[in-house]
Design goal:
With 217 residues, this protein is α+β, with helices and mostly antiparallel strands. The chain is built from 8 helices and 11 strands. Helices cover 34% and strands 25% of the residues.
Length: 217
Amino acid sequence: MFSRHELIWLTGSGWDAALERALPGQHAAILQWRREDWPAVVRRADPGLVPGQVSLGMPLPPSPAGVKGRIALFAADCDVARRSLPLTLADAARAAPERWRAALDLLVLIQFSMPLRTYGSLAMQAITGQPYLSATSDIDLLFFPANTQALRIGLSLLEQHAAVLPLDGEIVFPSGDAVAWKEWISATSKGARVLVKDAGAVRLATVENLLATLEAA
């Protein structure tokens, strides 16, 4: 089972299959990914995806006009050479621009027992060395609380540092369900529902039901 934002390196046959299915205008980017041995990123499964396959994306650097692109592809499980969790914040921070550096280094230092991981533009710039970040980019973080206390501490930490950094991202519950942490903070009323993303779907769930998954973990 693969999780959203996971990093996937393909075998030679996996890249061959991706090229065969790609549009002609996508070949140059796919060949570069293969040559540089960069990973694709797991995305939500396409409807009707055959068992034994995983949906992937190749986020491309923004065009000179600032337009973001992504090549959608899929691969057979047997064509996955290796896989990895998303980059830790500590590993991705080296690609951060100077304007973020001091505040980001402080956040890295005080993560305590709640290591943060990254996806999106900062992660892709750290992985590829290509210019993904712009003046309007966010720092997309993944936060994996193990219990309700870790959730409270983590949200407090993110809120505090969002005052000086353009933080965004998701809480990932032990079930794999993910919720935007800013939406979670706003959902304070009893019975409130939040948008949940998992490996195969998007749905609404109550805050109480998601908290119960922490207690059961």
